Structures are given as C-alpha cells and as structure tokens.
Amino acid sequence: MTPSLRTARACRAAAVLLLAAAGYAAAHHPWLALPGLYAAAVFAWCAARESALHRRALALALRAEHLARPRPRRRLGAGLEPCCAFWRHSYGAVHGPECTGPAVRVPVHDDCCERWWTSVGTRHDASCRRHTGAPDQDRARPAPQ
After folding, report:
1. What is the secondary structure of 6-27 as a DSSP string?
2. Cβ atoms of residues 58 and 64 within 8 Å
3. Residue 29 has what DSSP assignment?
4. Rg of the Cα atoms in the chain
5. pLDDT tens digit string along 42-91?
6. What distance lies between CA 23 and its chain's CA centroid?
7. What three-state secondary structure class fits 91?
8. How confident is the model at residue 29 (pLDDT cuts 50, 70, 90)?
9. For helices 30-68 and 3-28, angle between their N-to-C axes, nearest 10 degrees
10. CB 103 within 8 A of CB 77
11. How do residues 118-132 score in pLDDT, each as one tens digit?
12. 27-42: b (≥16 Cβ within 10 Å) or e
C-alpha cells in the first residue's frame, strides 16, 4: 500500500462523512448544506488525484521491475552469422556490394536476367532491362551493378 492509496481512502471517507453531514444539514438549515457539499466535492477530487498517483506509482514500479529482469540476447538471424557490416546493421535485409557470404540472398525479379541472379546481383546480361536503364526499371530498389 502506497501513501497515496492511504490518503485516497482517507479523502473518500471524509467526502462520504461530509456528504452525510450536508444531507443532515439540508433537512434543518438548507444554507448550511452548501459548504458541506463543496467540501465533499473537494475531498472527492483529492481522492481521485491520489488514486491516480497510486496507480502511476504501481505502473512505474512494475515497469522498473520488468526492465531490471535479464533478457536473453536476441540473435540477428536464425543461426546465421553476420557476413558484412551492411547485413549486421540492417538485420539481414541488405548486403554489401562485395559481400559473398553464404547468407547472401537477392530477391528474384521477373524482369532481371539470370546472370544477375547467379552473380548475386553484381553482373547483368547485355540484354537485361535493369542494366540498360529501361524506363520501367524498379527505382525504389535498384540492383547493384
């Protein structure tokens, strides 16, 4: 139990007592009920704020506990060793131009040549549309040349 929760419970109890007192005063002297209702509203607001502080303290403690737990190191790939710096920093999505590691995989495009595929993207056929600069080549991911 945090101090905020104790304060919130005390404020709620005070608000209920002041509400009961305001109800009793309204039966005898209606003008005396207004200060009791106002004080009850202030104590109810204070109870809500302290409850929020309690929830925040619990959330921060839970987060700190979660961050303090040791986590196993995440491997970059499923059993693959990094073959170049580009691969290491892109989590296996990009390889360096001179990378010839066993993990190098280049996506197959239907408009590229077989020589490009077998040379791991470093050479093209003379008739390859990507190599000749055809207007419909993929400009978002140009092939290495």
Report:
1. HHHHHHHHHHHHHHHHHHHHHH
2. no
3. -
4. 35
5. 999 999 999 999 999 999 999 999 989 887 766 554 555 656 766 666 65
6. 49
7. coil
8. confident
9. 170
10. yes
11. 666 666 667 776 665
12. eeeeeebeebbebbee
Amino acid letter at 107? P
Tokens of 104: 């190098």
**Highest-confidence segment of 13-22, 28-37, 80-89:** 13-22
Q: Is residue 120 classed as helix, strand or coil in its secondary structure?
A: coil
Q: Are 57 and 45 in contact (CB under 8 A)?
A: no
Give the number of other Cβ atoms within 10 Å of residue 91's Cβ.
11
Amino acid 1: pLDDT: 82
Q: What pLDDT, on a 0 to 100 scale, did the predictor assign at position 3?
A: 93
Backbone dihedral region for residue 4 (phi beyond 0: left; psi -120 to 50: alpha; all else: beta): alpha
Four-point Cα dihedral 127, 133, 135, 140, nearest 10:
120
> Which DSSP symbol is given to 137?
S
Separation CA 32–CA 26 (nearest Å): 7
Q: What is the pLDDT of residue 102?
A: 54
Q: Which among 10, 9, 11, 4 is positioned nearest to 40, based on CA atoms? A: 11
Q: CA 8, CA 50: separation in Å to the nearest integer?
A: 5
